[in-house]
Amino acid sequence: MRNRLRMKASGIASILACATFGAVAQGGNPGEAAPRVFLYDGAMLARIKAADTKDPRRQEIVHAAVAAADKAMNEGPFSVMQKGVTPPSGDKHDYMSQAPYFWADPSKPNGLPYIRRDGEHNPELKKISDHDQFGKMGDDARILALAYYLTGDQAYADRAELLLRTWFLNPETKMNPNLEFGQGIPGINTGRGIGIIESRSLLGATEAVGLLAGSKTWTSADEQGIKTWMAAYLKWMLTSQKGKDEDAAKNNHGTWYDLQVTELALFLGDRKLAVDTLERVKTRRITQIDPDGRQPLETARTNGWGYSNGNLDGLTQLATLGERVGVDLWNYKTPDGRSIQGAINFLLPYAISGKKWDYQQIGGFRASDLEHSLERAALAYRDPKYAAAAKQIREGDDLSTVMLAAN
Question: Which helix (H) or strand (E) holds 98?
Fold first, then answer.
């Protein structure tokens, strides 16, 4: 799983993963309307924005958001037109990427067809810039829009709007709403349904749109243009063969497919599709977790720790979206005891207690891979052990000290 801008995004996510902000002194406009966001807690953001500007907690959050946004101000704009190759369609507006774990076959004169080396990233990927550009656009747009929402500084809104218009709206630079050429394998195919996991960058873009609602330069035409694009992409996900292939995936790919469908459905106001997708998570995704919490389809990979956490990251975000529409994934258990909380508890000792990872992890072990899931769990379960564990991972505190403070 890609961890680009981790310092930027993680710092903000860690600060916002706080359930106690409602106790701060009110200032500004206590009736501030919550922004229309789904993965962020809009009501909490409104309380932060309305808080007294001298409140130390508000200052901490705003400082983190501004520091991250200031870095993003110097990045982009990003476009699919910046890649140095042309997709098989002949249209550079089509997104394109190469399968990360496939390499030239040294036994063949031309290296074709490529062969799989799971967990080993082929550096050739960098020749096609769309994947990195898509990720940067989503991350930066959300960060900039958040800084604008909290501070009212129009410069942040202007930059976020530039990123969104460049990627989605400008006829000369926009991406076509499909991923027909995602994660192609040289010598085998030009794209696969598996590539759809790369459009998870849309999550940042949709959240950004909600945070920009008060901007004087974000027009109704901009808003409708983004919605039209997202609706076309969602239709492609639901009806194309590649979309259907990814929908049927049983591992992390299926989880991230459901997450994108749910977020886009909520963004577009299709509550029924969102609820139906979340209900299916109970029978299609949570069932992939063993009763003891292990995720066998992920631990089977050469980077079992990374993929277990990547899948859990998607599941906890789905559970967060479930809160918005009354679908409780946090506390759902199958009749034989499979659950999201079980998956969290299975991974926890490896991250904070020094337990040796029992499966392959050729890419290096990072306890921080579990951090965001723990932060969400701390809010969902009101259990201090998850907040304490996230704090330990984030700050490198001694476990005994952290647990003592939590009790």
Answer: strand 96-98
Place of tokens 């790369």: 198
Residues 6+ apart with CB under 8 A from 165: 222
The continuous run of DSSP H or E covering 116 comes out as strand 115-116
pTM of the prediction? 0.92
d(CA 142, CA 137): 8
Alpha carbon 244 to its chain centroid, in Å, reads 21
Domain residues of the chain, as ranges?
260-407
Contact by Cβ (8 Å): 242, 177: no
**Closest C-alpha to 253, from 238, 267, 241, 243:** 243
> How many Å apart are CA 226 and CA 238, to the nearest integer?
18
Task: Read off the amino acid at residue 343.
Answer: A
Q: CATH for 260-407? A: 1.50.10.100
Residue 312 has pLDDT above 70, yes or no: yes
The 10 Å Cβ neighbour count of residue 40 is 20
How many Cβ atoms from other residues are within 10 Å of residue 8's Cβ? 19
Amino acid sitting at position 318: L
Measured in degrees and rounded to the nearest 5, phi and psi for residue 183 equal: 55, 50
Q: 210 near 35, Cβ under 8 Å? A: yes
* Residue pLDDT, tens place only, 282-294: 999 999 999 999 9
